Amino acid sequence: HKPEHIVVFDRQLWGNKVDWENEPQLTNFQELLEKSEPADCVPVKSTHPLYILYTSGTTGKPKGVVRDTGGYATALKFSIEKIYGAKPGEVFWAASDIGWVVGHSYIIYGPLINRNTSIIFEGKPIMTPDAGTTWRILSEHKVSVMFTAPTAIRAIKKEDPDGEFIKKYDLSHFRTQFLAGERCDVATLDWYEEKVGITPIDHWWQTESGWPMLSLMRGVEDDGVKRASAGKPIPGYDIKIFDEEGYELEAHHEGYLVIKLPLPPGALMGIWGDYERFHYGYLAKFPGYYFSGDGAIRDEDGYIFITGRVDDIINVAGHRLSTAEMEEAVSGHKDVAECCVVGIEDDLKGQIPFGLVVLKSGTQISETEVEKEVVALVREKIGAVAALRNIVVVKRLPKTRSGKILRKLIRTMLDGKEFQIPSTIDDEAIIGELQEKFEEYRK
Q1: What domains appear along the chain, each with residue ranges and CATH number?
Q2: Is residue 236 within 8 Å of residue 209, measured between CB atoms?
């Protein structure tokens, strides 16, 4: 399907020229605005499709998530007020991309429905011009509630480990920090709490849900934060932890995170043009339940801990190991800014863990030293069975523009297989950097 019309906003940036003449399907946004007449609102049914949002996540094959209108509006009004605790009239900042679900839900629709001022920011939290950009925006616009990805906080921590930029700004209006998009390591949470004076709330949801499934509800109650937990199930989501056979597990046992059907308002209506993928990807594994693709553990107080994508559980000589647990140990090293652990193929053990490490700016430790210390740290924290002996120090990790680490891409590259670069990658230049590093390692 080739679109007949594409509306383009020409930002007239140096080096980026729009080829209007040879691309007849392109329409200039500014010209369209000048020529268009105002249009009345069109009433639609609550089940009318609002948008199709393509998400490839970390797999590379896009899925068109279809969202409804009425249920979505209801979910966003409820969530921004009851979960995020934003009061009408306050300033809300979702530091994300408008093209992603966070941008749709909490830059555009959610804040406007709840009568909040919404901050729209383009750029990175560092080098624009420095690592104080986030704190400057919070201060200048008197932001009350912020939502961002843990990777943004890790980037700031890497460039400003002592939090010197934080001290330059008045953050007295700033009340609550939410994190999502990927699991946040405890070291980053502790750094944020120490330097900013606010305990971040890690919560969990997906493009498919459109709004949080696990969180603490700051607009309802003041439940305490538990380190590494994504919170408790949000009303509307009947969340259970199943074993492989579909039986519910007791507290402190790791299993598959599933949600009993029907899903609440705002969740996806299906995958555009591919019902079979929708059925087999989400509904077939555990009939009567939506399968999230994530593993999780519930504790005795009802808090849920996401252990990562199910395919991030690796089998080392018969031992099932969580790469998320290993990453937690690696990130505890004082010189590590962020990391990623994946399982790669091994003739003897089936799979073995392999770690990629990004160091904090200004650190003096050598790559050889940090590799040795990280291996010892994982052995100390998890045990010899973890068998993490392969560590490579890299400049940066490949991520989607929403901040998710492209783990499948890393695994495929390390296994020496042919790979496809996902269209959602933030910067393709990282691939060349990794290939060079991996070649050095193999020598």
Answers
A1: 6-35 (no CATH), 49-307 (3.40.50.12780), 317-442 (3.30.300.30)
A2: no
